[in-house]
Amino acid sequence: MKKAKVEGHKIQLIPNMKRKKPYIYRIPEALKGKVDEQIGELLDAGLIEESDSDIAHPVACVYKKDGSVRLCVDYRTLNAVTKPDDFPMENAVDLMYDIGKANIITTLDLLKGYWAIPMEEHSKDYTSFKTHRAQYRFNVLPLGLKNAAATFQRVMNNSLKEFSEFARAYIDDIAIYSADIGTHLKHQDCVFRKLDELGFTVNTKKCSFVKNQIKYLGHIIGSGRHLPDPDKVKVIREL
């Protein structure tokens, strides 16, 4: 998997705050093979590398709906001493209002978007984690880090700033919106070229192309309409 040609994620610690060595969880015997397999894939893809940092974090195995296992690094002790990044998120209400006025909308999903963001070299050791076999660190932005969302929002804002009249993002939810189909196809081409230039990969299986209305941030918007997502409403009613 290629890394995007964008600014790397930097971890800054709060001055005079001392890092604690976290307790390392034991990985169940039955899951060690799955952990080894995933670590091998991450190493082969260049997403992680071996680390000799003095402090490393534990991993937990979380079952996904399909029965497979996801490795999650517990960064709580690191997050507790990380200086917050106050970069502003897009206002979700304003964003839905602007996009919802359009007649034609496309939404894009970036393939493992966080992993496309490189880690700043001096921050890599902070991401170190231990398994039953060895210690590793991330070369790319891992899930679970404080400020990860702020970094991703900044990257998306900078990536799409020349197209801000027709392309916006709420973290990794990108929307392209236009008045008519002809204009929309031109807008799509601009955004796709930019994402390709920067090295992002679009996950077409999770995209929605050229729609009059779309699901976005828990709402149905488009063609001047703005309604709550019925699926979300159903969940609330059934509580």
From TrEMBL:
Naturally occurring in which organism (per UniProt) = Araneus ventricosus
* Pfam family for this entry, one: RVT_1
User: What are the Reverse transcriptase domain coordinates in residue numbering?
Assistant: 43-221
The record ties this protein, via PANTHER family, to: PEPTIDASE A2 DOMAIN-CONTAINING PROTEIN-RELATED (PTHR33064:SF29), POL PROTEIN (PTHR33064)
GO BP terms = DNA biosynthetic process
Name this protein carries in UniProt: Transposon Ty3-I Gag-Pol polyprotein
Q: Which domain of life is it from?
A: Eukaryota
